[in-house]
Write a structure and sequence with these properties.
The complex is a heterodimer of chains A (about 325) and B (about 260). Chain A is mainly alpha-helical and about 325 residues long. Chain A is globular and about 60 Å long. Chain B is α/β, with parallel strands linked by helices and about 260 residues long. Chain B has two domains: about 160 residues, P-loop containing nucleotide triphosphate hydrolases (Rossmann fold), CATH 3.40.50; about 60 residues, no CATH class. Chain B has a six-stranded mixed β-sheet with strand order 6-7-8-3-9-10, sandwiched between helices. In chain B, helix 5 crosses helix 6. The longest helix of chain B is centred in the middle third of the chain and has 18 residues. The two termini of chain B are about 35 Å apart. The model of chain B has no long low-confidence stretch (mean pLDDT about 90). The chains are: A mainly alpha (about 325), B alpha/beta (about 260). At the A-B interface, helix 6, helix 7, helix 8 and helix 9 of A face helix 2, helix 3, helix 4, helix 5 and helix 6 of B.
């Protein structure tokens, strides 16, 4: 990883190139494609908090909600301040994504502070509570649509922006954890007391992990809001947080490659299972089981966790930074 | 001015005085042993000096400035490093990364530097990598650089802990029972290693150890604790024949 920056530029160029071919794509597949991108950002950012820094968080959907609602509010309020042309509205959209990220980062700072005193299950419960509070506030905030949800955003999110941000997120996380500066995150995860006595400010690193993770989740929320064009508090509930946690655990804590792969698999799998019951060549019982696709989905997760408890790529991070 | 001055320090947990009115000094480039029967308060002294606990009374000064009330990472930054009685390596990190992590506090640049990898980033990382490899080579761990910390044999883990502590560039090194669980030939090598470390890096070492052969063999001065109080201090020969020390270890009758 001597030249991660050039890899990033190649990735961005590929995104731009590929975005020319997404126009004629079947809307259903396009939807899945964008959802995969958003889920990768969410999973990769939670991986910084949980996988690399070891702070178990069950509130990632809360940060996503903050980002989604903040950015939607920004584009709905200021969307055409700079004019109605596409570049003008598009730059407001990018600013809104950034603003959504900042708002989520501020929320991350708030949650990061209790993480200094709590660990493990206790921290998980606090983060869970926090995301429920966020949901509760939104459900009662009339300007944000309350229980009716918030709609009317222009669909700015496209293939290019989604995957450009995916590339930026992966780049950011990888460069961070592979640098000497970022080794502080891993040290906090492995042994907090030892980290502190090696001169590492564990407070700073834990809060930083929450702030960066929340920022990325907020941006992902902004992408989501401007793709679906309608957001509802229930879309950011506990189950969404669990989904992201499952991606991190399945992919392998602290393995960015594994987590990305898990995000892809876990987004496609439930959609794929929808179609299994149509395959007439499959034996009857399998098709019947596939009718209840969530049961099959859970079953597959259980089998995966039994056979690979460390996650798909769980061992990979032992051989990192051969040459930083 | 002494390197470390512990004056009239008391540490009380509820009604239990783990350290009682303890006073001692350490000079530069000195190898001091801290011994005492189980539960005498040796590790508590370490935790006080490194800022894990805050003393209930007394002062602890390092290079003339008080260390009380500072977070452990700040105290490490001022030049006190330690190892742990029960090894605390970063188990999943490679040997190389374990040591590299200890260089974290010497970084000249912050997070933006790590993210954007601007000018000077690779120079600094290479510099760190080189100094880490130098340390690993000195202590014979270079061949294991990519192995995860917790996969090393026990003796190597102890050694790696010392290397990691040295990477923070300390002026005072606290070793908490480095010989625990070692056989006699390993102990012999450890003694050489401690002596070598002290001369090579020109630092002071405070050694907590149960093994009398190790302590008597390398320490220039020994401080004996019993029930949190200092009962004797002096060169090894003197301590060996001190009736109070013998009484503390073997009981009154033997003395």
């Amino acid at each position: 990883m001597r030249h991660p920056k050039s890899l990033l530029f190649i990735a961005l160029a590929l995104c731009a190139g590929a975005s020319f071919f997404t126009g004629g794509i079947n809307p259903y597949y396009y939807d899945i494609l964008i959802t995969i991108g958003i889920n990768i950002i969410l999973a990769v950012s939670l991986n910084l908090v949980t996988g690399y820094t070891g702070q178990f968080s069950l509130g990632h959907a809360g940060f996503m909600a903050v980002g989604a609602y903040s950015s939607a509010w920004i584009t709905l309020t200021f969307g055409f301040v700079l004019g109605t042309s596409l570049p003008a509205a598009g730059s407001v959209y990018l600013l809104a994504l950034f603003g959504g990220g900042l708002a989520a980062a501020a929320a991350g700072l708030l949650v990061g502070v209790p993480s200094l005193r709590l660990r493990g299950d206790y921290l998980a419960i606090v983060t869970l509570g926090f995301s429920e509070i966020i949901k509760g506030v939104i459900q009662n905030a009339e300007p944000l649509g309350a229980q009716r949800g918030l709609g009317g955003m222009v669909q700015h999110t496209n293939f290019f922006w989604t995957y450009a941000i995916v590339a930026l997120s992966i780049y950011g996380i990888l460069t961070l954890v592979h640098s000497t500066y970022g080794s502080g995150f891993l040290a906090v995860r492995d042994d907090e007391i030892a980290a502190e006595s090696m001169g590492i400010n564990t407070t700073k690193y834990k809060v930083l992990a929450f702030v960066i993770g929340a920022f990325m989740a907020g941006v992902a929320g902004g992408l989501y809001a401007h793709f679906k064009q309608f957001i509802h508090p229930e879309g950011f509930n506990f189950l969404k947080s669990v989904d992201i946690v499952v991606m991190v655990i399945l992919g392998g804590m602290g393995s960015t490659a594994g987590v990305c792969l898990a995000a892809v698999i876990l987004t496609i799998l439930p959609e794929f299972l929808r179609t299994v019951s149509d395959y007439t060549w499959l034996p009857g019982p399998v098709r019947d089981l596939a009718e209840n696709r969530m049961i099959l989905y859970s079953l597959l997760l259980i089998i995966l966790m039994l056979t690979r408890p460390q996650g798909l790529f769980g061992k990979l991070h032992f051989i990192r930074s051969k040459k930083s | 001015m002494s390197l470390l001055e512990v004056s009239n320090t008391t540490m009380q947990f509820g009604g239990l005085k783990c350290v009682n009115d303890l006073t001692f000094r350490m000079e530069e480039n000195e190898l001091v042993g801290l011994i005492g029967p189980n539960g005498a308060g040796k590790t508590t002294v370490f935790n006080l000096v490194t800022g894990v606990y805050r003393q209930t009374a007394g002062t602890i000064r390092f290079q003339g400035k008080s260390v009380s009330g500072h977070r452990p990472y700040k105290i490490t930054g001022r030049g006190i490093a330690r190892t742990f009685q029960n090894i605390r390596l970063f188990g999943s990190l490679s040997v190389f990364d374990n040591v590299r992590t200890a260089c974290n506090m010497h970084l000249r640049h912050g997070i933006s530097h790590a993210l954007f990898r601007g000018r000077g980033f690779h120079e600094e990382e290479d510099e760190i990598g080189k100094s880490v490899m130098e340390l690993l080579e000195i202590f014979g761990l270079a061949a294991m650089r990519d192995r995860p910390g917790n996969s090393l044999p026990y003796g190597d883990q102890r050694r790696l802990e010392i290397v990691r502590a040295l990477a923070t560039r300390p002026k005072l090194l606290l070793l908490d029972e480095p010989a625990a669980g070692m056989n006699s030939s390993e102990k012999e090598r450890l003694m050489q290693l401690i002596r070598f470390t002290k001369e090579k890096f020109r630092l002071s070492i405070l050694l907590v150890e149960h093994d009398m052969k190790v302590v008597m063999g390398i320490c220039e001065r020994i401080i004996v604790l019993d029930y949190g109080s200092k009962i004797a201090e002096g060169p090894p020969e003197e301590i060996r024949h001190n009736p109070q020390v013998i009484a503390a270890y073997l009981g009154k009758e033997a003395a």
